[in-house]
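ingest -> validate -> predict -> emit
validate: passed (alphabet ok, no gaps, 261 aa)
predict: started
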Amino acid sequence: MNILLSLLGTKALGFLILLWQEASPSASPAGAEMQNTFSITEMLKNLGGVAMTVVIILLIMSVYSIAIMVERFLTYRAAKQQSREFAPRVAQALKNDRIEEAINISDKHRKSHLAMVVNSGLQEFRAHEQSSEISGDEIEASKRALQRAIAIKTAEFRRGLSGLATIGSTAPFVGLFGTVFGIINAFRGMKAAESAGIAAVAGGISEALFTTALGLAVAVPAVWLFNYFSSKVDGFIVEMDNSASELIDYFLKSRTRQLKP
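emit:
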C-alpha cells in the first residue's frame, strides 16, 4: 500500500508539473483559459458521477467525524473539570465519615467519572452498613459494584471512537476508489484523442488527485483524534481504578473502626 501511494505521489507530481506548464499563459494563447478550467470550482463542476459520489461520501464521513470530535472533546473536558472539583470535597467528607454527604456530593457531579464510581461503591456499602460483623461478601459486593460502574463509564467514554477509527482507516481507500476511476477516465480521454496532448488526460488526472487529497484530508484528523481520545480514556480508566482501590481501603478501615470495642 505504501509503495502504491509513493508511486501515485510521484506520478501525480509529474502530471501537476505538466498541467502547470500547459496552463501557463506564456506557454500557449489558451493558457488563461486553462487556468480557469483547473480552478477548484471548475473541477467540482466537471467531476464524473463516480467521483462526485466519492466526494459526497467523504464529506459525510468528514461531518460525522467532526461531530464525534467535538462531542467527545466536550465530554472529556466536563469529566475532567468536575472530577477536579469532586475529588477534594468527597475526600473531606469521607475523612469525617459522612457517607450521606459524600453520596450527595457525587450526585451533584454526574459528568464526573470519579463521582459515578464512588457513588456506586458508597451506595453498596451503605446498604450493608447496619451489619454488625465485617464480611468478605460485603467487600466483594462493593468491589463488583465498583467494577460495574467502571465498565459502564468506560463504555460511555469509548462511544464514538470506533467510528473515528473506521473513518481513519477507510477514508483513504474511498479516495483511492475515486482515484482509480479518475485515471481510467484519463486513459479513455487519451484513447479518444491520441494527438491532443495533456489536455486529453488533464480532467481525469485532476479528478483522481482531488479525490485522493480529499480522502487523506478526512482520514488524517480522524486518526490523530482517535489516538488522542484513546489515550484520554486510558487515563480515565486508571483514575477510576485508583479511586475504586482507595474506596475499598476506606471500607475496610471504616468497618475495622466500627468493630473495635
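Residues 199-259 form the longest helix (61 residues).
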